[in-house]
Amino acid sequence: MRDGYALVLVQPGDPDPDEAARAHGRSIWQPGAAFVDPASRLTGRFLEGRYEIGERIGEGGMAYVYRGMDQEQRRMVAVKVLSARLVADPEAVARLKREAELTMRLDHPNVCHLLALGSDRGLHYLVMPLLMGESLNTRLEIEGTLDPPQVVRILRDLAAGLQHAHDNGVLHRDLKPENVMLVPETAGERAIVMDFGLAKPTEVGDEVRKLTATGVVLGTPEFMSPEQIRGQPLDPRSDQYALALLAFELLTGKLPFQGGSSQETMLHRLSDPPQRLRELRSDAPPPLDEALARAMSRTPAERFEDMTTFAAALTDGAD
Q: pLDDT digits over 169-199, tens only?
């Protein structure tokens, strides 16, 4: 499974996290502690006696992902174990639990739903279906850009999954190519949205702190809507903005806002209009260009009413 997490090889001689944890008298990582995250070395172990942990297949700033076996259901699963850096913040854990419980209500073919949420000896984990395919990010790296009909097919799937989530009160908040899986099927492939509810912005005061403080905002700066950057209340149109950014990158290999850093890029998003699609992709249908420009409006009220309406405009633009 590839869901956007960079693979990091474990080298022989790496310290055992359990021994380090015992030496420090606890199992939770503390800032400045010189030992390996306990969540990073779980292969061959069991969580709550049910989930047998296999090889580590990926990791990111928030979690480690393992191939696992659900001994009770006798099926392969993906087990995402939260990093101890995140677990060290009780409020973050409580927020993620609330989000995960809400996400488990989702049931849609274009959504990777959660199967279980649990904790074992200080480790907090999520269980998901093990999807066999490639991430949209991998596809983009291989092909560079995608043609409009292919992009629209992908976006139609993603919009359907996101609309289902929005109808159930769930916002994604971190939509990007790494969080989309392409799963082969008999009639082609299906795009599936991953990692719902795991990137809610931390509610802090002023905009400057959000732009400069490390770890304050959970998410990917390049794909955040202006209101998310500002820390304002979010609604489904924030996900629509991110989906439009994703579409622009799939079609051009670039994002419509450029800057020397993530912070500079975010600042441009707060004050400048996005680059138009047809400036970089002259073969793009004009209606598709118009749809993306509208979905990337700085003001949410100027965007499409919902994902279904947005998807219809994209489809009209490519057909």
A: 888 988 999 999 999 999 889 999 998 755 4
Residue written as tokens 């990582």? 29
155: left (phi over 0), alpha (psi -120 to 50) or beta: alpha
Q: Is 142 helix (H, G, I), strand (E, B) or coil?
A: helix
Domains and CATH numbers, the chain: 17-129 (3.30.200.20), 134-318 (1.10.510.10)
Total residue length of the chain? 319
Strand order in the sheet with 75-82: 46-47, 51-59, 63-70, 75-82, 123-129, 116-120
Q: How far is CA 103 from CA 43, 81, 220, 315, in A?
A: 27, 17, 20, 28
d(CA 238, CA 7): 29
User: Structure pTM?
Assistant: 0.78
Q: Which two tokens stand for residue 160?
A: 């359907």
- From the list 3, 37, 174, 239, the catalytic residue is 174
Per-residue pLDDT tens over the stretch 103-139 = 888 999 999 988 999 999 989 999 999 999 999 999 9
Active site residue 174: yes
| Residue 19: CB atoms within 10 Å | 11
162 token code pair: 């996101």
> What DSSP element (H or E) covers 116?
strand 116-120
Q: Which residues have CB under 8 Å from 300's CB, separation 6+?
A: 225, 227, 235, 237, 238, 241
